[in-house]
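Message: I would value a second opinion on how I read folds in token form. Give me a protein, with the fold worked out from its sequence. Write it directly below this note and I will take it from there.
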Amino acid sequence: MTAEESQAYQAMSSELTAGLDPDKVISLAGDFEKKYPNSPVLSYVYTFEATAYQQKGDINKVVEAGEKSLKLNADNLLSLIIMSEMLPQPQLMQGNELDKQKKLTEAETDANRALQLIEKLPKQGTETDGQLKKRKDSIASEPHGSLGMIHLQRASLTLTGGMDADELNKAAQEFKQSVDLTEHPAPQNYYRLGEVYANENKLDEAIAAFSKASEVGQGSGIQEYADKQIETLKKKQAQAKPAAH
């Protein structure tokens, strides 16, 4: 890699780390792709681009950049994590059942490959065994959350007699693993766990999960949604109680 190429790559990385202007990252990625089409780091440039589109909330562009990244390097860990998270999102679950299943299968493959790669991560510098395990667990939290979403989507695809109980159970296990593996769980994984429990009619567990989503996601849209769910479920509980006597 030439010095100029390296400099262009670092500029993008710094811009992304600063997290101030995703449009600038996207522009720099486009320039890099034109100037260095055969660069050994182009797969990672597409990862930067995907991350910038993620910050903008443009899910289709995230997937487009992620696919380009994985085409160049099928073992790009960050791109695998991004793709496994994006593909099962409700916005992308469009089209016929075959299209949906195809996306979920691709997402599952990406998530499982990411978990394999995380397991092989080497120690950094003076990192102890305990620190390495903690770092691996924290990274693995994300693909486990993605697997939870994949199973939750599959549970709802077979709506012949309600949600698929086996898929719901698998979703719950993955979401629980996701929040347990890290000190900073994503509020959406608690929220989705609440949805799973609500679908299983486990109202106490659902309220507890939504309460955690509200707490962890304080000040965000997730807090608002979680609080509404708690209110609805408490009303449901109150209505069910007199009928039990």
Remarks:
- The longest helix spans residues 129-157.
- Residues 126 and 145 are 29 Å apart (CA to CA).
- DSSP finds eleven helices and no strands in the chain.
